[in-house]
Specification:
There is one protein chain. The chain is an alpha/beta fold and 552 residues long. The protein has two domains: 227 residues, Rossmann fold (3-Layer(aba) Sandwich), CATH 3.40.50; 252 residues, Rossmann fold. It contains 23 helices and 15 strands. Strands 1-2-13-12-7-6-3-4-5 form a nine-stranded mixed beta sheet, sandwiched between helices. It has a four-stranded parallel beta sheet with strand order 9-10-8-11, sandwiched between helices. Helix 8 packs across helix 9, helix 11 packs across helix 18 and helix 13 packs across helix 16. The longest helix has 22 residues. It is globular. It starts with 5 loop residues before the first helix and ends with a helix.
Length: 552
């Protein structure tokens, strides 16, 4: 690659750290098998769908012997879904494990995500190609895609492509949906006698692919540190100018893990946690009142400035708004042709208001016109509103501004409210991986290779004890079926890996909740700065505050 930066050139030479058990001779790594496992819920239904792969044991790597070096393995790797820092290092871990075991083994990259394995679009990865992407961000090495591997036609095409290329193992690097599809693909290959193993790796910056055994998904560490640097910069500016309120929407539709971690890193005046809003059944008006209350209290102290963090998916977690969105989705799905004939926003708004239920119509009317228009935009391929396009941060700003104007008329507020809106999402998805993510991803890839080399299928690569130095990490694999339950998806009950939401009785949230009232009124900003790759451990090798709190 040409025109590389000095940092990129320096990162090429970084050697990611591995758990002790994986540091030596790869032929002296044994698989220790635990007891048979069960899915987290709906055991009978999940077992019926995964007759050949259900109940597999948890695997831990220990010192011992194996016959990996005697096998010639051709493996194919897929990057699936949105980018997350460290994906290239998962591929590097797979590649190095494969070549350390047997130089004749080959690794192929399926180009453009799952479409690559469906259409037979792939490239062989060699030393030169791999070395151009070590320890770098992005998924540009082989590209990614959002096609779901979920139909028998897809599976059969994938089987034929693998057989034509002599590929006997597939690694899917993705989130909960991608790994669910990987589990179904593993079951299909097993049922059909294809002899092709499938292993996953846990990817998502959102942090919602986690459970008792997956302590964190890769990319979360780097992304939240990147966002926290930006938030800290804005806090410093806010505290310098002392005249703006900054409302920052953070990526993460299904859970508020990113917002919570960034709050612990930067100590903003406000951080809304969607899961808490839902549990307390707060109305939109109550959410707005909570924010307004902090603005008023700070103004009383002469501080007409501050920083508020808002999770991307908040609007769906407010019960009354969630129900409104569900009604709108349903109405648009069943009246798409008529809705398309309506000319202009006013006509669309009037029609929608007339069709909504008595409970939903007032909520729709309460929303700013811009948000109403965004709720009526084109749906995603599944018929759902595109939440990432809804400017929730601007909605909160406008509604808080109106409420403050009312309070000012009533003589209950005399401050000034000038607000700026931001959305941090893509800024963090392709950052240079932190040392933690570089090491973690490399270990995940190395572990994925050992799992597939041992003929294990339907597993997700796993590394535990992540709050400790890497030498004390514990590597192995967890059966994908163990993390599944049955959920309603597009009108049908389907097996899915359960998303992990913020636990309100968990240590990270409790730590935040114990401090937020103080942070709300007293300016307590902290400034994490840019990710550091060189220096003392406490500066460049610390995991997230979420992980530290959970393991304390």
């Amino acid at each position: 690659m040409s025109n590389i930066s000095a940092l990129q050139k320096a990162r090429y030479s970084y050697q990611p750290k591995l758990p002790t058990v994986l540091q030596g001779d790869i032929n002296k790594v044994a698989c220790s098998l635990g007891d048979p496992t069960e899915s987290i819920a709906d055991q009978d239904q999940v077992k019926a769908l995964f007759k050949n792969t259900y109940g597999a044991p948890i695997v831990r790597f220990t010192e011992g012997k194996n016959d990996i070096s005697s096998k010639t393995i051709n493996a194919g790797v897929i990057l699936s879904g949105g980018q997350a820092p460290g994906g290239h290092n998962v591929i590097a871990g797979i590649y190095d494990g494969l070549k350390n075991a047997n130089k004749k083994s080959k690794l192929f990259g399926f180009l453009g995500g799952p479409d690559g394995i469906i259409n037979g679009n792939l490239v062989e990865i060699d030393d030169k190609f791999m070395d151009e992407y070590r320890n770098t961000g992005g998924f540009d090495m082989i590209g990614s895609g959002r096609t779901k591997l979920e139909t028998e036609e897809h599976f059969e095409k994938a089987r034929k492509v693998c057989e034509a290329k002599g590929i006997n193992s597939v690694i899917i690097i993705g989130g909960d949906d991608s790994n669910t599809n990987g589990a179904v693909l593993a079951e299909y290959f097993k049922e059909s006698g294809a002899g092709i193993t499938v292993v996953g790796a846990p990817k998502t910056i959102d942090g919602d692919l986690k459970n008792e055994f997956i302590e964190t998904s890769f990319g979360f560490d780097t992304a939240t540190k990147t966002y926290s640097e930006l938030i800290g910069n804005i806090e410093k500016d806010s505290n310098s100018a002392k005249k703006y309120w900054h409302f920052i929407k953070l990526m993460g539709r299904s859970a508020s893990h990113i917002g919570l971690e960034c709050a612990l890193q930067t100590q903003p005046n406000i951080c809304i946690i969607s899961e808490e809003v839902e549990q307390k059944k707060k109305t939109l008006a109550q959410v707005v009142e909570d924010v307004t209350d902090v603005v008023v209290k700070r103004a009383a102290n002469g501080e007409n400035f501050g920083v508020a963090l808002i999770p991307e998916g908040l609007i769906e977690f407010i019960p009354e708004v969630g129900k409104l969105i569900a009604e709108i989705n349903d109405l648009l799905a069943h009246n798409a042709d008529h809705f398309a004939t309506l000319s202009g926003f006013d006509a669309q708004k009037d029609w929608m208001t007339s069709k909504l239920s008595a409970a939903a119509a007032p909520v729709f009317t309460l929303l700013p016109a811009g948000i109403q228009a965004q709720l009526l935009m084109d749906r995603d391929p599944h018929g759902n509103v595109q939440v990432s396009l809804i400017e929730t941060e601007k909605m909160i700003i406008e509604m808080v501004g109106k409420r403050l104007a009312t309070l000012k008329k009533e003589g209950k507020y005399s401050g000034k409210f000038s607000a700026q809106a931001h959305f941090f999402g893509y800024e963090g998805r392709c950052a240079f991986p932190s040392n933690f993510d570089a090491d973690y991803c490399y270990s995940l890839g190395y572990s994925a290779f050992i799992l597939m080399a041992q003929g294990l299928t339907g597993y997700i690569s796993n590394v535990a004890n992540l709050h400790l130095p890497s030498t004390e990490w514990v590597a192995g694999g967890v059966p994908l079926t163990m993390m599944m339950n049955m959920e309603q998806r597009h009108g049908h009950m389907k097996p899915v890996i359960k998303k992990a939401l913020v636990e309100l009785d968990g240590a990270p949230f409790k730590e935040f909740a114990s401090k937020r009232d103080e942070w709300a009124v007293k300016t307590s900003f902290t400034f994490p700065g840019a990710i550091q790759y060189y220096g003392p451990d406490e500066v460049c090798n610390m995991p997230t505050k979420t992980l530290i709190a959970e393991k304390a």
